[in-house]
Every structure is written in structure tokens, then in C-alpha cells.
Amino acid sequence: MADAVTPTPLLKDELDIVIPTIRNLDFLEMWRPFFQQYHLIIVQDGDPAKTIKVPEGFDYELYNRNDINRILGPKASCISFKDSACRCFGYLVSKKKYVFTIDDDCFVATEPSGKKINALEQHIKNLLCPSTPFFFNTLYDPYRGGADFVRGYPFSLREGVPTAVSHGLWLNIPDYDAPTQLVKPLERNTRYVDAVMTIPKGTLFPMCGMNLAFNRELIGPAMYFGLMGDGQPIGRYDDMWAGWCTKVICDHLGLGVKTGLPYIYHSKASNPFVNLKKEYKGIYWQEELIPFFQSVALPKDCNTVQKCYIELSKQVRAKLSKVDDYFVKLADAMVTWIEAWDELNPSSADLSNGSSK
Amino acid sequence: MRTQPPSLLSLAVDASVLHLSHFSDLSPLPDHILLDLFLKRTLRAGKLNEKILKLFLATGKEEVLSLIQTLNIQHILTPVLPTKSPKMSVVNNIEDGEIDIVIGALHSDLRPFMSAWKSIFSRYHLIIVKDPDLKDDLQIPEGLSFKIDIYTKSHIDKVVGSSTSIAFSGYSCKYFGFLVSRKKYVVSIDDDCVPAKDADSFLIDPVAQHLRNLATPATPFFFNTLYDPYRNGADFVRGYPFSLRSGVTCALSCGLWLNLADLDAPTQALKPEKRNSRYVDAVMTIPARVMMPISGINIAFNRELVGPALCPALRLTGEGKVRWETMEDIWSGMCVKVVCDHLGLGVKSGLPYVWRNDRGDAIESLKKEWEGVKLMEEVVPWFQSMVLSRTATTTEDCVAEMAKRVKEQLGGSDPGFGRAAEAMMDWVELWKKVGSGPSPV
């Protein structure tokens, strides 16, 4: 039951931490007490000739662009260059059940009480207990200590569904788009909202990749972060794209997505003018993309994530090509991604993940 | 050692600092005296204000001007504030006169309740509806400065008549208050609640928060991960479509409860000592087509928009005088949510919190609430699949249509549903007759 105070399992042999970086990994020093026991997968973006120094004492594997090309061959075309979207390569090569991904400008936050937040532990808690997407609980996550299902919540829905994604939030620099950043350059998120909640079925949300964890076995293949960065007409929509695809597939397969705690401290405000250039097309395209995702219907025989994703890529090609040719390229890349996933993860191919609706 | 006595000049400059505001022009002063006056005397004495700054600037003397610039002394810009009537709520231009606080009195002694809420409620008009089953007279504290209208069984009988299937007893008595209110906004709080306190032990004003929720748009079409984007310090996050950022009107605001949370009887019986102590500092819009259990303990709504949709319809056969023995609000809430989704209105949940006093015996209530728990199994999927017809363009139309469907589709499985359908139809008629125009009481 929700109130049992059992320690959260570490899952240190079942979880990989994937970090994309182009600068350095100094931020890991602050996370050392929480991350040191875990295996890191570092995806080095940008110039492969540069050496990224990893702080002493961490167990890691590091991949640069040369490694990506070597491992994927021609399929490497689906992995973005010069954009943190390249992180999804880390998901591809991970062999663990769970993945936690974090940006290199995110630090340990503190609760209002002053206690340092172990973000990873909270993500694990979120992933290990069920989600409740079919009926909104007004006291938020009913499985948290101190909370429960409210009066009127049907008992048949109290078992919940497996949680596939845990979406964390950020204090300090909020994840705003460029126009909002330009208008409110000084706004900081200082409000600590002590809640985790399930995003209801049928509801889309903007998934931020800065502080994210997921069950790779349940939803991994859907976490493709798209074609962004160098040579692409768009940037800063990688996590958005992955989030919309993931949510649609989770809804279809009866899996849950949670948002809220844990918070991390986001320290670096990116340049709003640079961001505006990257996001510009996305701001217009998202007006078409949201109705597209809201109306996606996946057929019943799509009972695995891969099948759902391939089907989604077909619909992207069919319905979004009129928005821009980019989406044809993206649809191709989505297929390439699944091929790469199945190649590198042969045992998970065609595994039935939950019941499809 | 003897200190040097002040010079005549020094004394004169000192004296002038005291009378600086009477000077109209400082330019005749020699530069070095001007500088001395500005730097050593005026600034150091803390006598620089807007008027005096202007005086120095007007001299046009270069050294003074460059000093002002170097010290980064700036004009204070006085913002032009809109005139505010003292009777207006500080937030969002809702006047106090647009609000009714409706309290269903299930206890006759309202003195502790009224004392607890006095500082918050006193500026508003209160409607207290006495549970028709309550035998004792209501006790209200003496000498209260605010306007209260009290309605009892006789008022209800007069307005509603006897040939109705609606029962206004127990918690349903407050719906009579909703019916006869003529204000735009209604706030309703159970009579076993008192104001909660924030981290600094100040009383939380739930009325102000409810009004903020109702006066700012809701965003039901896309989930914002920073919750209500209209709150101070928050906004829409990256990836939120711009076309959806103007939101829709919020018609219902659902607050929460500290201490005794609104849990059902089995849950509370299992954990009798469990109390809600977590203050979640968030308001959020419940997404479109998502159903939720709306508790009637602490709500507020835009009566003009959704008044008729809050209907006293579903009564458990063993309905009682504690929340564990009722489902009327849960049913009513789902009706409102369907109506809001259909008409493009919003529902918010979260802040404000009230403090709910311990009351009742969950285990005793288990016997009665079991019926409600069973009914919910059928009710929830049914409401979730409800799509109203395009021709239902008003709240009354929506409720009438829902009532018909309840009768046709649910009436067969439990007589309670059949009765609920009747009550809903009667409620719509009643609302049309006396829900607007001159007060029927």
C-alpha cells in the first residue's frame, strides 16, 4: 500500500544514465553521491577529435560520432548531429531495463526544507509504482506516502497500469521557448510543487528531455529524438517529438506517463536568439503536429512498441508531408531507428508489451 | 585635542540642506559648493529625493551630471495604477458584490464555523441553507457585520413545491442556495471546514484563490507541465502550441483539503489515523474529456455559465450526513465536467486548501457507502464515453440530454439511476422557472 516506508531499491545493475555532452562533464561532481553506483553512457556530440574528460571513479562507456557511424553504419543517418537529440543513441546501445537521462547543465536541487534532492531515487519510485491514466486523482499520485485514492475513485481502476515514463521538472531556469524567454528573461521557477501525477489517457504534453527516466523494456523504441541540429531545418523539438510519439503509444498500449517530481536545478539559460532560430519552424509546425497526434488512431494489431512506431511513421509520411518535406525525411528516419533498435536489441523484437486498445 | 570649529561656509551649506526643498534654482552656486552640497551633504544626509534630484539636474553643471551618472542615480518611475474601488477583490477585477458564499448547514451550531471564517467571509454575501432534516434551530454568532440570508425547509417547500423528485436533504441542501443565488460566482464550503494555515501560520483565503482560478483562463487542450501558466512565476513551457495559449473560460474551481482528506470510507477505515498534510502548491486544468471525482467540500463555480449543471441527482438509498455516505457531489461533478468539455469551458483543480475537521466514523459509513462504491464502477465509464449532441448548446440543454440518457441507458441497472434522471429533469425545469429573474424567496 501507498504508506509503507520501504527503501527505494537502487536498481544499480538495471539502470543506465545517458548523458549527451558537447562541452564537459564537470556537473557530474555534484551528482557523484547519487550517480556513482550507476553505469553511465555518454554520447559525445560535435567534434569526435575532442576528448571529453569524465571525472574519476565513474563507470562509463563513451560514444562519439565516429563510434556512432561505426556501430550503425548507414543507419547512423537517423542520429542527429550537433544537437542533444543524439542522446537517443545511448538508449539504443543500453542493455538495461531503465534509462535516466539528464543534461550536463542540470545540478542537484534542494527541497524547501533544504534537503538535497536525489532525483534518480524519485524517478525510480515513479517508475516502480503504477500510473493511473484512466481517471484523474485529485490528490495526485495515490501511491505516494501520505496520499491515496479519493472518494469516488472506482476500485476497479485502483490497480493502475505499469509506468513507462517519469518526467521530472526544473527549478531556476524554466524550460521556456524562445519567444517566452525573450519576453521574460529574468523569470525563474522557484515554486516547488510537491506532487507527482499521471498524465491522463488521451492528453498530450510537452516532454522535456532534461530530466527524464523511462522503462526501456516497455517503451524504449518510442524514445527516438528525431532529426535535429546540423543540416536539419529545426532544433529544440527532439524531446517534444519523442514525447508526443511516446504518449500516443503509451495510451494505445495501456502504459502510464507521470510528471512532476523530481526537480533538478537547471543552471544554464541558453541564448534566446539562437533558440529562436532553431525553434522558428517548430513554432509553426507544432500547430499542425498537435492536431495530428491528437487524432492518431493505431490499429488493434499494433501490440508492440515497434509496430506502433512503424505505423506512426506511415501516418507521419501520409499526413505531415504536406506540412514540409522534412517530415518525409523524419518518417524515413523513424523507420531506420526501429531497424537499428531491432538490430542492436534482437531479443526485444516483437515482444508484446501490454494490451493494445 | 580640540576639533576645528566649523566654518561659516560649512554652516551655511549645512543649513541649506535642511531647506533644500524651498530652493527653486541652484545654478547661481559656485561649482565646488554645489558639488559639496550634493555629495557630502545631501547624499550623506539621505536627503536626496526626486524633487531635489531635479533641482540639481536643472543646474546643468557638468560635474554634477557626471556624478549622478557615475553613481547610477535614477529617476523613480511612478507607475500609473488603475483606480481600484476598495470593494473590489485584489485579484482580477471581480467585485465582492458578484459573489455568493453558499453554505449547507448540516450542523445547527454554526458559531465555531462562522467565527473561524469571519475574517474571510465578512465582505461577501452569505447564503446559509439549513438541512431540512435538521430539527434544531440554527445558532449564528451575534453581531456579525455581514449580510446573511438563511433558508430553511419552509423556503425550499415554497419555491420547489412538493411534486418534485429532488430531495434537498443532507448535503443536497446547498443546491437550493445555488438555485436562488443571483450572483455570477458561487463559492461553497462544507460546514465542517475551517481556513487552513500557510507555512507562516497565516489563514489561507480560499475565496480569493477560487476567484483567481475562475478569473484566469483554463487550458484543457494540452497539458502544461508547469501547471497553471497564469500563476505568478509560471508560464507555458516550450512545446506548448501558441494557438492554445489563450485558453478557455474556467467555469469550475475544485479545491482540496488538509487534515481529513476526502477519501472514501473503506480507505479511511483501513487507515484511521491517516491525515493529509501535504500542501501541493499548484492549480491545474483538468484536460478535456478526462473525468475526475469532484468533491463538493470546497468548490467554486461561475453560476452564469454552469449553474444548472450542478444538480442534486444521485442519492444513495442510505445517504447520510457525512461525506462518506454520499455520492451526490461526485455525480454532479461528472455532469459539470461533461458539460464543460462539450461547451468548451474549463475545470481547474488544486489550490485552495481548506482544513477539514475530523468527523464521523468511517467504519460505520462503510455499510452505507458500499452502495456508492459499487455504483461508481458503472458511472465512470458511462460518463467517459458520453458525447453530447451538437444541438445541445446551453447548459440546460446539456443537462436535459444527459438526464434522458441516464434514464435510457443506466436506469435499468439500478433504480438510483432512474431517480437521478428524474431529479435532473426536474432540476432543469426548476432552474428555468426560478433560476433567474427576481428571487423566488
Automatic annotation (TrEMBL), chain A:
It is an enzyme of class 5 (isomerase). It is found in: Golgi apparatus. GO terms for cellular component: cytosol; Golgi apparatus. It catalyses: UDP-beta-L-arabinofuranose = UDP-beta-L-arabinopyranose. The record marks R151, R158 as: Required for activity. One of its GO terms (biological process) is UDP-L-arabinose metabolic process. Keywords: Cell wall biogenesis/degradation, Glycoprotein, Golgi apparatus, Isomerase. Its EC number is 5.4.99.30. GO terms for molecular function: UDP-arabinopyranose mutase activity. Its main location: Golgi. SUPFAM superfamilies: Nucleotide-diphospho-sugar transferases. The keyword Cell wall biogenesis/degradation applies. Glycans are attached at R151. It comes from the Eukaryota. Belongs to the RGP family. Probable UDP-L-arabinose mutase involved in the biosynthesis of cell wall non-cellulosic polysaccharides. This is UDP-arabinopyranose mutase.
From TrEMBL, chain B:
It comes from the Eukaryota. It is found in: Golgi apparatus. Keywords: Cell wall biogenesis/degradation, Golgi apparatus. GO terms for cellular component: cytosol; Golgi apparatus; plasmodesma. The keyword Transmembrane does not apply. One of its GO terms (biological process) is UDP-L-arabinose metabolic process. InterPro entries: RGP_fam (IPR037595). GO terms for molecular function: UDP-arabinopyranose mutase activity. Its main location: Golgi. Belongs to the RGP family. This is UDP-arabinopyranose mutase 5.
